Amino acid sequence: MSDPEAPLTISHSGDSGLTDSHCHLSDERVFAEADALIARAMNAGVTRIALAGVEPAEWTRQLELKARYSDLLTLNFGLHPWWVEKYSRAELDSILHELDTRVAHAQGVGETGLDFHSKRNASRFDDQREAFRQQIRIAKKHSKPLVLHVVQAHEECVKILKEECSSAKSMGASDLGIPILVHSYSGNVTQLQEYLRLGAFISYSGTLVRAAQGDGHEKTAKALLNTPIQRLLFETDAPDQGWGDPENSDENEPARVREVYEAALKIMELPLQSGLPALAEVVGKNFRRLFGALGNVPNDHGSAR
Ligand SMILES: [Zn+2]
C-alpha cells in the first residue's frame, strides 16, 4: 500500500476517457431516456460506464442496454440492500437462486451490502446480512468482482467480508479472492484502511463536489486523500445523489462524472488541465483491473496478480 502521506503523482501517457464506475441507467426512472443520457455522456468524454444492479427486472433492462452499447457498459447483477425489504424470505431465496443462474451474463455482482441508516427497516437487517453473505458466495463461486453499498454499517461489513474470507478453503485468511468496489464511499479513514487491507477499490461520488466547494463533507475529502491512487474510482450514482439544486433530484447523469474528477483534483491540489487526463488514465486502468480478466485481483501494492 502506498504511503498516504506521499504526494499523489500521476503521469499521462494514454487513454484519458472518463469512467462512471457506478450508476443506474437501467433504473425505471431514467430507462426510457437512457439513449440520450448515454449520448450526452459520450459527448462529455465518458468511455466506460458500470451499471449497478438492484433486482431481477432491472438486470433484464441492463441486458437491453448492453445489446446496444456493448463496449461502453459494464453490467452488475445484484440485490440492493434497500430492495431486500421489498421481498419475503421465500422470495429472497428465489431471487438469489436466479442471481446464481443469471450472473454469468454480468461482469460483476452487486450492488449488495448493508444499509443500517435509521430510515431503513431495522427488522429486516438480518435479511440484509443473509442476502449479503449469499451474494459474496455467488461472486466467489463465479469469480466476479463484488460491488458494495455500505451505509452506517462499515465495521459489520468488513467483519462479514473477513468471515467469508476465512471460510474460503482455497484462499488465504485475509484474501476474499475476488476484487471489491466500495461504491460512494462514506466512511472514515480508519474504516477505509480496513477495506484497503482487503484489496478494495474505493469509488467516490458527487459528495466530493460538495466537499471541494467547502460545503462540509470533510470526512470524505480526508478519505480521498488517504486512498492510494491505484485504488481510486469515481461515479455519479445517477440518477441518485445529485449535488446541484436540491429541489431538482433529476439532474444527475453520467456526463457529470467529469465534475467529480475535477473536485477530486481540487481536493488533491493537483492542476486541473494537466491533471484531468492523467487522473482519467489511472482511473481507467483501475476500472480495467477491477472488472478485467478473471484472476486480476489487486494485491496490497495495487498491482494485478
Ligand atoms: Zn447505486
Description of the structure:
By secondary structure, this protein is α/β, with parallel strands linked by helices. The chain has one domain: Metal-dependent hydrolases (TIM Barrel). It has 11 helices and 9 strands. The strands form 2 sheets. Strands 4-5-6-7-8-9 form a 6-stranded parallel sheet, sandwiched between helices. A 3-stranded parallel sheet has the order 1-2-3. Helix 2 (56-68) links the parallel strand 2 and strand 3 (73-74). The longest helix has 20 residues, at 272-291. The radius of gyration is 18 Å and the shape is globular. The chain starts with 17 loop residues before the first strand and ends in a 14-residue tail after the last helix. Residues 1-7, 169-174 and 293-305 have low confidence and may be disordered.
